[in-house]
Amino acid sequence: MIDAPYDDAGLLPATRRALLHRLATGQSQGRAPSMVGAVMREGRLVWSSGRGELPGGAAAEDVQYRIGSITKTFVAVLVMRLRDEGLLKLEDRLGAYIDTPAGGDATVAQLLSHTSGLAAEARGPWWERTDGSLRPGLDDLFGDRPQLHTPGRLHHYSNPGYALLGALVERIRGENWYEVLRREVLAPLGMDRTTLAPVAPHADGWAVHPWADVLLPEPAADTGRMAPAGQLWSTTADLCRFAAFLTDGDERVLPAATLAEMRVPEGGPQGQGKSGYGLGLQVMQRDGRTLAGHMGTMPGFVAMLLTSPEDGIGGVVLANRTSCFEVADVAADLLATVADLEPRIPAPWRPLAGVKNEHLELTGSWYWGAAPFTLRLRDGGALELSPLGSGGRGSRFRPEQDGTWTGLDDYYAGETLTAVRTAEGTVSHLDIGTFVFTREPYEAGGAVPGGVDAAGWRAEEGIEGK
Known about the structure:
It is a single chain. This protein is of the alpha+beta class. It has two domains: 13-341, DD-peptidase/beta-lactamase superfamily (Beta-lactamase, 3-Layer(aba) Sandwich); 357-460, Lipocalin. It has nine helices and 19 strands. The chain has helices at residues 13-29, 70-84, 108-112, 159-173, 177-189, 236-248, 256-262, 326-341, 357-360; strands at residues 34-41, 44-52, 65-66, 206-208, 215-217, 233-234, 276-277, 282-286, 289-298, 301-308, 313-319, 364-368, 371-377, 383-387, 395-399, 405-407, 416-421, 427-432, 435-437. Strands 12-13-14-15-16-17-18-19 form an eight-stranded antiparallel beta sheet, with no helix packed on it. A hairpin with a 7-residue loop joins β14 and β15. α1 (13-29) packs antiparallel against α8 (326-341) and α2 (70-84) packs across α5. It comes from Streptomyces hiroshimensis.
């Protein structure tokens, strides 16, 4: 995690200039009164800068901006902590925990992934620009048609859905969601500049006229019950700390395995390399990289946080202009600039420790029918199945206490891999969700369902009709 002061000495001069040029271009072309950006690499803030009008004497990385829907990722972290503690299950109905006029039939996972079918916005007037006192209770969040789609049917972004998740945290923890966030997430990660209301030095929010370079101030309302959907203020330094946590985890908050679970897109193709929305995280493909993070917009402000766990890099950009969507490209480009110009140095290769012979004997070539695969042993007894050739389904598998493995990716996600042994204890074949893998293509001996022709493989002259 980030525990060192701001220091860009780790980046090459050409990299630092490229970063500054991209930020300056984004602020100028986006006509933002100010724009600040930062890059996290290997858990540390390695570059930060700002352009435009900043509070006098303030360092760019310490200026607060409203971060909008990045707030949702913080709320999702709180919910996943409750899940990891056994206080709820993702498949539980929300109505099992709180009394709500809408959304009670949706599961916790559906609310996290915006597949609950709830309406996108709270009941009018425009909740982002009006005081939360207009919506004091959950009954006041929804209009005449709160449920637009059947839960689980499709992705439909819902701000009130995250207001309900904030209420869920309050119900289980017994205190305000932000106080829980401050104690359980912000304090352990050292994020003391992430707050519910602005604390100086902070930027003011502005709208920019579409056809003239003039400004209009935007209100910064306390949104009350809707706060879990977009209330927080933060800095690039704090969000780089959060990016480091989202990349590698922190046992005081959430382990890396839970964060990897949050990055899996819901309601669509499952597995690495897929775009969509996970459990509180947006997942996207850009230039061959899988990026995870979140965008945030509120009147007068726009923010983007992106991470590339594979590269160990995060990019953050904040601006104080309504609808300045350039920040998404700028954040992605800052991340890619460092990843491309200064690629990650691989960790030294080291042999595995504590390898079990019964695991080692599973490695090597396997065949599903006549399709070839390889099985490799990874750290901690994990297995990795890879197809050879142009097609086939691969996956990583996590070892379980009962001697089986559970698939983590794509088609085999959640499926069980079992090493089937003979009465003598030797490995006969692998069973992966009823698919049989043998050591030879269509190996004789009874393992292949439907049997194998006793005459075996034929040359051309052995084919009837030739």
